[in-house]
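Here is one chain, start to finish.
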Amino acid sequence: MVSVTLENISVDLGRRPVLRGVSATMAAGEMIGIIGPNGAGKSTLVRAMLGLSPLSGGSVAIDGRPLAALHPRQVARRIAYLPQGQTLHWPLGVERLVALGRLPHLAPMSRIGEEDRRLIAEAMERADVLALRDRTATHLSGGERARVLLARALAVGAAGLIADEPLASLDPGHQIDVMELLAREARQGAMVVAVLHDLTMAARYCDRLLLIDRGALVADGPPAQVLTAERLRQVYGIGARIETQGDGPPFVIPTDRIRVEGLI
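Its structure:
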């Protein structure tokens, strides 16, 4: 089990403030979606959680320990990270690529053991890429490559998983597969954080949403509380129809573009 606590964190890239005073706690057993318009600071937020984007203010703690006191290998063992838009430059086999997820657990010059091989095969099965294990990763389609990279993250065997835009390049069927996989990881006790653009997918599968706008956290709560028509108008500059079926999650249907002063 793992938890992450953000206390009033800020991040500047160059002289430009990207995050401003964000506070939140993310715990085991939660499926958390980070949403917001392009350029809001979503990817910077998850990178800051892992120590990959330096803070200009505030603090991050993992399991109550300051992030600054943890070695990057310790962080990688606790929280697996799937960045967005990864490009593969080397013609690695799929199984070998997924095996790279075990690196945080291996000593220098050591070899993969039987337990590592079991976890690699299990990760490929969960990501539905076992049939691709003998293929060359650079020869895969975009959707196949995305699922293989997710398998690599799962192979870490970490108590937490952060996925930045895990649905990019996937067809609708595999989008559902990935979201169900992530939600299942959370139900089994993992802390799962996903940066998402599809608001209906976020509402359907996430227990909680963090809405980021221009570097600030403007809403944090269950999807039905975060995804209101007025908030979507203010943050995204869109009109939207929000529908629910009984006690189920909301469906968000954008209807038109709205000019909001200071937004567009």
